[in-house]
Write a structure and sequence with these properties.
- The chain has a single domain (3-204, 238-263), classed as 4-Layer Sandwich (Purple Acid Phosphatase, chain A, domain 2).
- It has six helices and 14 strands.
- It has helices at 13-31, 51-60, 75-78, 132-144, 159-168, 215-224; strands at 3-8, 10-11, 35-39, 64-66, 87-88, 102-106, 112-119, 150-155, 175-179, 189-190, 196-198, 203-206, 241-250, 256-265.
- The strands form two sheets. Strands 1, 2, 3, 4, 5, 12, 13 and 14 form an eight-stranded mixed beta sheet that branches.
- A hairpin with a 5-residue loop joins strand 13 and strand 14.
């Protein structure tokens, strides 16, 4: 029996949530999905994930929601992480951080699926976490004792680290899906030992933008050197919202059979 998995690329702001609301159920039906998860590290105003949006995305169909470097940006979510089992923060955050980094779920077909959130080490303006190559392997091995179907959301800044991490865990996990870059890469592949890999699954939300941020805001940041933490969404009708991600098929042994990029526009031209 195969397990059909849909990953929703980083959900950004109102446009991203709207895409999930309108498009997700049709995609689940089209791809006959057994399991859905995704990244929502910027779902609330483009920076972090609030408690209300987390609950809403879970209700819309995401069994697990992964975070990243902005996992602790919203106070209400931080206060709820220990009791909100479907929201994951990166496993290589300090051990006393709230929340969990791995969740094992039962897919629609009855198979158990493990999802692990891991944060990259290089390319960030400050060090957020421990070395993922060292800290990640123990959690992978622990998850594999429960199920051979192990999925990793690797939220990393540099393509080199993502590529290296993919080869490092090739054959150890079912899929390594890159996030944080917010630009969908065209390098999806099933690696030699059966791990589905993509450097970045893209973003769900405004495509006519700078990483989901209004171009005017991004340009001002580059001109002044001063970050704008309000990160307003790009205005309609120029946003060109779309749901991006990947569709992965995994066999009972945990080996990936296929990986396919998804880029579904909200409005058909």
């Amino acid at each position: 029996m195969e397990t059909r998995i849909l990953y929703i690329a980083e959900i950004i702001g109102k446009a991203g949530i709207q895409c999930v609301k309108i498009l997700l159920q049709e995609l689940i039906s089209r791809y006959k999905c057994d399991f859905v998860f995704g990244c929502a590290d910027a779902a609330t105003n483009g920076t972090g994930l609030g408690k209300q949006h987390a609950g809403y995305l879970h209700k819309l169909g995401l069994s697990v929601i992964t975070g990243g470097d902005m996992s602790f940006y919203k106070k209400d979510m931080v206060e709820s992480l220990n009791t909100t089992s479907y929201v994951l923060r990166p496993l290589n955050f300090p051990k006393d951080s709230p929340g969990k980094s791995c969740k094992i779920c039962t897919a629609k077909n009855g198979k158990r699926v493990a999802v692990i959130s891991i944060l990259g080490y290089s390319g960030f303006s400050r060090i957020h976490a421990d070395n993922p190559f060292i800290t990640g392997i123990d959690s992978v091995m622990a998850a594999k004792k429960e199920t051979p179907l192990v999925l990793i959301d690797f939220h990393a800044a540099t393509t080199a680290e993502k590529k290296a991490f993919g080869f490092y865990l090739n054959g150890q996990v079912s899929a390594i899906i890159g996030s944080h870059g917010r630009i969908q890469t065209a390098d999806e592949i099933v690696l030699s030992n059966g791990t589905a890999y993509i450097t970045d699954a893209g973003r769900t939300g405004c495509q006519n933008s700078v990483g989901g941020t209004a171009p005017s805001v991004a340009i001002t940041e580059y001109l002044s050197g001063i970050p704008d933490w309000t990160r307003i969404d790009a205005p309609e009708p120029a946003v060109k919202p779309a749901l991006q991600g990947v569709f992965v098929v995994v066999d009972d042994s945990g080996k990936a059979v296929s990986i396919e990029r998804i880029n579904e526009p909200l409005y058909k031209e």
